[in-house]
Amino acid sequence: MSGTAAAHALDSYDPIDLATMLGPQEAAVRGTIRNFGVERVLPGVADWYERGELPESDLRALVKELGALGVLGMHLSGYGCAGMSAVEYGLTCLELEAVDSGLRSLVSVQGSLAMFAIWQHGSEEQKQRWLPALAAGDAIGCFGLTEPDAGSDPASMRTTARRDGSDWVLTGRKMWITNGSVADVAVVWARTDDGISGFVVPAGTPGFTAPPIKRKASLRASVTSELVLDDVRLPADAQLPEGRGLRAPLACLNEARYGILWGAMGAASACYRAALDYAGTRVQFGAPIASYQLTQAKLADMAVELAKGTLLALHLGRLKDAGRLQPAQVSLGKLTNVREALAICRSARTILGANGISFEYPVMRHANNLESVLTYEGTSEMHTLVLGQALTGHTAFRR
């Protein structure tokens, strides 16, 4: 009996044995991305975070490598995209965010926002021009929806696009745009006489600038920018022909939110592992703190919530691959997984004590990053109301 128990001992890092639930291709994707993150990004990410700077040369090199791995727009088909499954994309987000939320954000914005918008709503000419370059990492994309006064309520956006002959002229500002100041192309949403519409804006277009946002306490190893559109003149074919109405950008956001509900579990897993390792080596009162009941209670609670969130992500991924995933289910996943990931990170910090705030460990970096993840791509309040409306049939967004 003891031999059997030893042969099947619980994996402290993965008590639900996630690997047994994955197919060979899914496991291979997960392993490849984990190795890339650990070997290529993890050694430098704490320094980037501490400096609050991800140099453009390093970022572009990373994007090229991610493109070579087939990660960029990996869940899309054609145009140089890998055409992988939703679960494979989710596992990729999990492993990327186990390194840093900024790394997962880079990939999410490139693939699930900029590329998805063009792939889903663009013309064939727009797809041919941009998607192969974005998939290969030869170009970087960003997505301009959020404004200084229009976050949770994008319908109130002030950026406008007016006709001038056959051209469009865009005027306005977008805020908190990942990849903005290094992007080669921006998908920008603006109000027209016929409603909200999307436009493809190449970097370097006169009147278009993207100053970086500095002095951040979160997502410091990520490029965040403002987009300024000062009478930006675009040809008629810059408009996304199928990108009309608010449903178009919201469909893109739903793709990104799906990646987030996986990614949050990656950040939580990194903090759980750090706390588990630390508790086994930190000696107080003559014994490792892992031997004390209160520490074990914290670790057990963290393991339980991590298991629940990971299983939920996998279930939603299977639904997405089957074509049955609903937007409210994505909201449910994003709401609970980010919330519990934050709780796991905070509990891990208490186990590490003062060392928990040191960049020698990943815990505070992940916790700070998750404070942004909690509110971007829809705040907890908004996802609560999305879920509430789906459950009751009553909307509570406006009064």
Automatic annotation (TrEMBL):
Classification via Pfam families: Acyl-CoA_dh_1, Acyl-CoA_dh_M, Acyl-CoA_dh_N
InterPro entries named among the record's database cross-references: Acyl-CoA_DH_CS, Acyl-CoA_Oxase/DH_mid-dom, Acyl-CoA_Oxase/DH_mid-dom_sf, AcylCo_DH-like_C, AcylCo_DH/oxidase_C, AcylCoA_DH/ox_N, AcylCoA_DH/ox_N_sf, AcylCoA_DH/oxidase_NM_dom_sf
Domain Acyl-CoA oxidase/dehydrogenase middle: 142-232
Catalysed reactions, semicolon-separated: glutaryl-CoA + oxidized [electron-transfer flavoprotein] + 2 H(+) = (2E)-butenoyl-CoA + reduced [electron-transfer flavoprotein] + CO2
Pathway: Amino-acid metabolism; tryptophan metabolism; Amino-acid metabolism; lysine degradation
Names of the cofactor(s): FAD
Domain Acyl-CoA dehydrogenase/oxidase N-terminal: 25-138
All copies of domain Acyl-CoA dehydrogenase/oxidase C-terminal, residue ranges: 243-391
Keywords: FAD, Flavoprotein, Oxidoreductase, Transit peptide
Record-listed E.C. numbers: 1.3.8.6
Keyword Flavoprotein: yes
Annotated PROSITE patterns: ACYL_COA_DH_1
Family, per entry: Belongs to the acyl-CoA dehydrogenase family.
Stated name of the protein: glutaryl-CoA dehydrogenase (ETF)
Organism in which the protein naturally occurs: Jatrophihabitans cynanchi
Top-level taxonomy: Bacteria, Bacillati, Actinomycetota, Actinomycetes, Jatrophihabitantales
